[in-house]
């Protein structure tokens, strides 16, 4: 079998997944856009505020008429926030006005109601205000035609607020990569089933689907195959109809029932041994133009394979920022196997980066305690406590 470094295999996977990055944006309702990445710049179609309006409940006046206070002004009417025939202000008079209501042309200041005394048809203004006070000018927040949000922006509530405020109902976002998951193994059953001897619960299906979703993908199907190649072939043929990428688990090593390897090898798949632990046996194929990544079946191997090989391109396709590796000091010394890059499960604590498990790829419970993978280079065999290591956040 071919042997590859992690970088070589990652490069190969990146080439297979490259078409994900050129899919055009999709228009979706604003109400569904939370967490999505904008596919294109959005310019404001309107001015915000849309019209000149009051910042306070009070009286619309012209500042020139209230330079000396107290002063009595006749009240010509009430302007509420809401649709109404426009009115015009006459100098030396006032309109009672509510927050958000249009300020009549000619008025240039709002006197808050707290600074007034209302009497029959008149208002006593007790505090002077200068022109512009408590008036929200049209376009003072954003002008029509100017950039509201740049392509690539990850839409949080505040971004959705402004898109809604300018009246957009739909928005063009990066399409979610469509991921199909197929697990393989005669031993697998669904949680909730009674276990017969030799059976285990299928955890990789839901784990890979969750990993994909957590990184911006849409999971279009989760299927499970026994070790029967005909069944796997059928499930794969169905998966590639709707998916942009298919992830499989299991059936890629050296046993007698390696259904993924047996089915895909004749179709030109590449199976390689990657110099890493976990995640050594890896495969890739292209079926009907759809890339298929074949991860090893051990639960930790499957999840680490996703993190190292699939996550970067799935995130990029969805428009999500890359997960950057950081550095941290080791809490205790460690040893590593020469020639294999290790991705050790660990968590960050006050004392440094603490390993949570040994190297066994079946240690799925310990994986759940981890929040990082410690990336130990292939040529390193020992590290001391306190030494800085590269950690990949999970
Ligand atoms: N002679 C050799 N044996 C093995 C080698 C090797 O190089 N020579 N490599 C080992 C390594 S490393 C790994 S990793 C595994 C990979 O094996 P497969 O990808 O063929 O996976 P399976 O044999 O189907 O399963 C391995 C293990 O994981 C359990 N499993 C599988 N699928 C699931 C699932 N969906 N949910 C939960 N657990 C699952 C399965 O029961 C096995 O225990 O091969 C080693 N062997
Ligand atoms: O892929 Mo295996 O997990 O290297 O033990």
Automatic annotation (TrEMBL):
Listed EC numbers: 2.10.1.1
Stored CDD domains: MoeA
Catalytic reaction(s) noted: adenylyl-molybdopterin + molybdate = Mo-molybdopterin + AMP + H(+)
A Pfam family it matches: MoCF_biosynth
Enzyme class (EC, first level): transferase
UniProt domain MoaB/Mog: residue ranges: 180-316
One GO cellular component, as annotated: cytosol
Task of the protein: Catalyzes the insertion of molybdate into adenylated molybdopterin with the concomitant release of AMP.
Protein name: Molybdopterin molybdenumtransferase
């Amino acid at each position: 079998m071919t042997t590859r470094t992690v970088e070589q295999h990652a490069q190969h996977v990146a080439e297979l997944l490259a078409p994900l990055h050129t899919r055009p944006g999709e228009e979706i309702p604003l109400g569904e856009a939370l967490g999505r990445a904008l596919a294109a710049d959005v310019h404001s179609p309107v001015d915000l505020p849309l019209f000149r309006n009051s910042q306070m409940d009070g009286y619309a006046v012209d500042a020139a008429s209230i330079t000396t206070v107290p002063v009595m002004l006749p009240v010509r009417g009430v302007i509420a926030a809401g649709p109404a025939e426009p009115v015009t202000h006459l100098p030396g008079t006032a309109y009672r006005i509510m927050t958000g209501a249009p300020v009549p042309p000619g008025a240039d200041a709002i006197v808050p109601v707290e600074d007034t005394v209302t009497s029959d048809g008149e208002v006593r203004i007790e505090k002077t205000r200068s022109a512009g006070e408590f008036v929200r000018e049209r376009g003072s927040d954003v002008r029509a035609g100017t950039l509201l949000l740049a392509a690539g922006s990850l839409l949080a509530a505040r971004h959705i607020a402004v898109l809604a405020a300018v009246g957009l109902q739909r928005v063009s976002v990066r399409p979610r990569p469509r991921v199909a998951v197929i697990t393989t193994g005669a031993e697998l059953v669904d949680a909730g089933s009674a276990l017969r001897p030799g059976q285990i619960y299928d955890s990789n299906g839901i784990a890979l689907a969750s990993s994909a979703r957590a990184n911006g993908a849409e999971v279009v199907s989760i299927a499970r195959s026994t070790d029967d190649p005909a069944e796997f072939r059928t499930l794969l043929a169905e998966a590639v109809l709707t998916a942009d990428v298919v992830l499989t688990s299991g059936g890629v090593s050296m046993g007698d029932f390696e259904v993924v390897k047996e089915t895909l090898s004749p179709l030109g798949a590449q199976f390689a041994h990657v110099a890493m632990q976990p995640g050594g046996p890896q495969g890739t194929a292209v079926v009907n133009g759809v890339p298929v990544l074949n991860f090893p079946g051990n639960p930790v191997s499957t999840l680490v394979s996703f993190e190292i090989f699939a996550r970067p391109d799935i995130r990029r396709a969805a428009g999500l920022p890359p997960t950057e590796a950081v550095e941290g000091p080791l809490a205790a010394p460690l040893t590593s196997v020469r020639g294999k890059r290790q991705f050790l499960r660990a968590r960050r604590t006050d004392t440094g980066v603490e390993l949570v498990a040994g190297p066994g790829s079946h240690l799925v419970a310990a994986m759940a305690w981890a929040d990082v993978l410690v990336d130990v280079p292939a040529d390193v065999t020992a590290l001391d406590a306190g030494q800085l290591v590269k950690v990949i956040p999970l």
